[in-house]
Design brief:
Length: 143
């Protein structure tokens, strides 16, 4: 019985170790390139404010894992966004929870992201280039 328990524990350990190795590790450059391409829905190498906000709207729906109209920390931790980019997900949550009640409403997220878009749009033309998105996005989330 003892041997069976040891073997079972060892197998579980190997499986968990293997699963943690499957999680990709992205450099900042890879992460921002990936995100830029996700936001750039028409693939014209620029992100309009409409594209940006459309992506945010879709993200909110996906992050609201219990579908109650708000994003809680549990929703955040259960989201794919958190699985792959936990630091960025935590920063988005922190910046979006403007009333600091531990929940993000769609209105809070939209307002926070409208502000972030304007901060990244250095030249104020309503369009983010990859350079604006990468340089400014990285500095915003490295606090």
């Amino acid at each position: 019985m003892y041997l069976k328990s040891v073997i079972t524990a060892s197998i579980v350990g190997v499986i968990l170790t293997g699963c943690s190795l499957l999680k990709p590790h992205y450099s900042d450059e890879q992460m921002h390139s990936y995100l830029f391409n996700k936001f750039d829905s028409d693939k014209d190498s620029q992100i309009t404010e409409a594209e940006y906000m459309e992506f945010i709207d879709e993200r909110f729906v996906k992050m609201d894992t219990d579908k109650n109209g708000t994003i809680s920390k549990d929703d955040l931790y259960n989201s794919r966004f958190y699985t792959f980019l936990p630091e960025l997900a935590e920063a988005v949550f922190r910046d979006s929870d403007t009333d600091m009640d531990g929940l993000i409403t769609k209105e809070e997220m939209i307002k926070a992201e409208e502000i972030r878009f304007k901060q990244m749009d250095v030249n104020g033309d309503g369009i983010l280039t990859k350079e604006e998105f990468i340089v400014n996005d990285m500095s915003e989330f490295k606090k």
